[in-house]
Amino acid sequence: MITGDDLAQILGWRNSERIRKEMFTEHIISWEEHLAWFEKSLSSGNHHLVFELDGNPAGVSSFTGIDAQNNHCSWGFYLGESPLPRGTGIMLGIYSMQYAFDILKVHRVCSEVLASNPISLAFHSKMGFCREGILREHIKKADGFVDVVCFGQLYEEWTRNCAVLTKKLATEY
Fold first, then answer.
1. CB-based contact 130:153 (threshold 8 Å)
2. Are 124 and 115 in contact (CB under 8 A)?
3. pLDDT in tens, 35-64
4. Which of 17, 73, 75, 134 pairs with 105 at a CA distance of 20 to 30 A?
5. In the sheet where 144-154 sits, what is the strand order?
6. Model pLDDT for residues 84-100, shown as the tens digit of each residue
7. What 3-state class would DSSP assign to 159?
8. pLDDT band at 3 (very low <50, low <70, confident <90, very high)
9. Is the dihedral angle over the CA atoms 124, 125, 129, 132 positive or is it negative?
10. Residue 48: which residues within 8 A CB-CB, separation 6 or more?
11. How many CB atoms lie within 10 A of CB 139?
12. Residue 73 belongs to domain spanning
């Protein structure tokens, strides 16, 4: 889980142009706004994790809207460091889905991606998420409205996808 010691690095990542342009909100986040987000996260039951590669912070994985009654949550992530070794995104994805299904014990993980983000769209497909819909012109960005693509993955789908991804990671990366 993210701690106060992680906040400065996460804010630096989040405010980088590379990450901001792919997020739903693209403004520069102030330290005060970041602290308020962290405090709200602590009390809301959300899970925000720092993903580490070889013991070094490399990104963030977040689970929000955790619904224990209906056994689902929403997932968001980003790799903060750049460049990173090939396969790092797949590792983050595998660890994230294992966390969601094994620790949070959800049945379904949902994710929303800006239609203008081809890398994340392809990543979700590679991770085995099913494309479930489009929210047309859902987010207003500096250059106009952008569609949002909705994805979902069920536990039983993940059990099949995990084996394939783990094998791919071991042989290709």
1. yes
2. no
3. 999 999 989 999 999 999 999 999 999 999
4. 134
5. 47-53, 56-67, 72-79, 108-114, 144-154, 130-141
6. 999 999 999 999 999 99
7. helix
8. very high
9. positive
10. 1, 2, 41, 60, 61, 62, 63
11. 18
12. 4-172
Tokens of 160: 């099949």
CA pair distance 173, 170, nearest whole angstrom: 6
- The helix (H) or strand (E) run that includes residue 93 is helix 88-98
CA–CA distance, 109 with 155 (Å, rounded to integer): 8
Q: For tokens 């991606």, what's the residue?
A: 113
Question: How high is the mean pLDDT of the chain?
Answer: 96
Per the structure, the count of domains in the chain is: 1
Q: How far apart are CA 4 and CA 26, in angstroms?
A: 23
Query: Tell me, what CATH number does 93's domain have?
Result: 3.40.630.30
Taking alpha carbons only, the member of 26, 28, 36 closest to residue 12 is 28
Q: What is the DSSP annotation of 35-82?
A: HHHHHHHHHHT-EEEEEEETTEEEEEEEEEEEETTTTEEEEEEEE-SS
